[in-house]
Specification:
Mean pLDDT: 76
CATH architecture of the domain at 1-174: Alpha Horseshoe
Order of helices and strands: HHHHHHHHHHHHHHHHHEE
Helix content: 55-70%
Oligomer: single chain
Shape: globular
Strand order of the largest sheet: 1-2
Number of strands: 2
Radius of gyration: 19 Å
């Protein structure tokens, strides 16, 4: 089972998806039939779900979580915490943020109850920080992020991308988009140096969702290298930001539409920006000069001054919509 965990982590990081599902299926089957490794199937499922998210296999992420959950019968103790995390992560990937929060809280509570020292605590906190941030719950996101930072040693390189993205989402929820983008850029550079192309892609995807177009060329290089529908979608998103043509991402493409994390890619009409305060008005007009002057410094650098998140914005999966 440990070898299967390592193999799936490596395949996900490198974007090798041809045999990924087969490897996962065989590992789960072996775990179910072996008493010693049976509780580990929930942890393995979470590792596989992460690989699915990195490679854009969103439907498979949810389906695998349901299959593993259905195989459980009165899951005991700490194993249930792993199962709760698996289901919570799948909900987060699908954009079901309320459900994700409930399940991830259960996972964290299970860790605290049983005193486990595994990576489940920081992993749960990563998800909690992201979900709270996407719901605009800044204080809760900061609390979860602070807890995660206390339990991630510097040598845990496999957690650095997730920690950076949780940090970025928290900064974005606070309105510090410049800092969020800089965090994603730094994480992308480190992932590239470690030879983790899908981790780098995840960082560029987040930066594009926060309105950054500076990495469009690199995103296209990754799309050519990985040959994943998700990679092509991220590249097209960044390129459309760079060209100012939001219609590029609105063209129907069946082979990529559901590959984007959160299953949908919602774009504003003129330029794709993560937050549109003007969308909360009846007319949806651009922000006035006085409104632009009230933006924090991190938001003023965005093109057309469209991207200071209001307190009530809502994130849907890895896309955004207004709560009004």
């Amino acid at each position: 089972m440990m070898a299967s965990v390592a193999l799936v982590m490596a395949m996900g990081a490198l974007g090798h998806v041809d045999d990924l599902a087969d490897v996962a299926e065989r590992a789960v089957e072996r775990a179910i039939t072996a008493f010693e490794s049976s509780p580990m199937r929930f942890w393995f499922g979470a590792v596989y779900a992460r690989a699915c998210r990195l490679t854009g296999h969103i439907d498979e992420c949810g389906q695998s979580a349901r299959r593993i959950a259905d195989s459980a019968r009165d899951v005991p103790g700490f194993a249930y915490a792993n199962l709760a995390f698996l289901l919570g992560h799948a909900s987060l990937v699908r954009g079901d943020l309320r459900s994700a929060l409930s399940l991830l809280r259960e996972a964290r509570a299970g860790v605290e109850k049983h005193g486990a020292t595994t990576g489940l605590r920081p992993a749960s906190c990563f998800g909690l920080a992201e979900a709270h941030a996407k719901l605009g719950q800044v204080a809760a996101a900061e609390e979860a992020l602070a807890e995660a930072q206390r339990f991630v040693p510097a040598e845990y390189l496999f957690m650095q991308t997730a920690l950076s993205l949780a940090t970025g989402w928290t900064l974005a929820a606070k309105g510090y988009l410049g800092e969020a983008i800089a965090t994603a850029h730094q994480a992308a550079t480190e992932a590239r140096e470690r030879g983790q192309p899908t981790h780098e892609l995840a960082c560029l995807q987040a930066a594009a969702q926060w309105g950054d177009a500076s990495q469009a060329s690199r995103a296209r290089d990754l799309a050519d290298e990985l040959s994943l529908p998700l990679a092509n979608t991220v590249a097209r998103h960044a390129e459309s930001l760079l060209s100012g043509d939001g219609k590029v991402c609105l063209r129907p493409r069946r082979n990529t539409r559901r590959s984007v994390t959160g299953s949908r890619l919602r774009m504003p009409r003129h330029r794709q920006r993560p937050c549109l305060p003007a969308a909360n008005t009846a007319s949806g007009d651009c922000m006035r000069r006085r409104q632009r002057g009230s933006l924090p410094p991190s938001a003023r650098g965005c093109a057309r001054r469209h991207c200071a998140p209001p307190p009530d914005f809502r994130w849907v999966g890895d896309s955004v919509r207004s709560s009004s």
